[in-house]
Amino acid sequence: MPAGMMTSREAQKAGGEIFAANCTICHGVRGDGRGQRHEGMNPPPANLTLPPWSEERSATRMYKVIHDGMPGTAMPSWSTLSDRQIWQVVAYVHTLGNP
Ligand code: HEC
Fold it and tell me: Is the CB of 75 under 6 A from ligand 1?
């Protein structure tokens, strides 16, 4: 992650917009895995408010999951998002478990 981005209000805000547009349908508005479409998904969307996702040390892993997706699950790969946008989402998701 680019230096300072995790705690940058600006990055978190931009990431919040990306999250609202692309992720809440499955992961929920609060990131707790209870989005409109979560029912019946196997495996279900991850609860992003809990460790390891709420922990800063999982940032690189989260980047990779968002970039590559998770084959065999409903989690798509987000090749449409730029590197910078993915880091912004990671910074935002970090705030969900650490309000
Ligand atoms: C179509 C539904 C869907 C959308 C949209 C979606 N996800 Fe997911 N996501 C999932 C599912 C299902 C899993 C659970 C995969 C598993 O547990 O193996 C998951 C897992 C994850 C994980 C945890 C991966 C792991 O190793 O357990 C992260 C982090 C994540 N999603 C972030 C995001 C972000 C950020 C976005 C928006 C850019 C997003 N997801 C959009 C369905 C979705």
Answer: yes
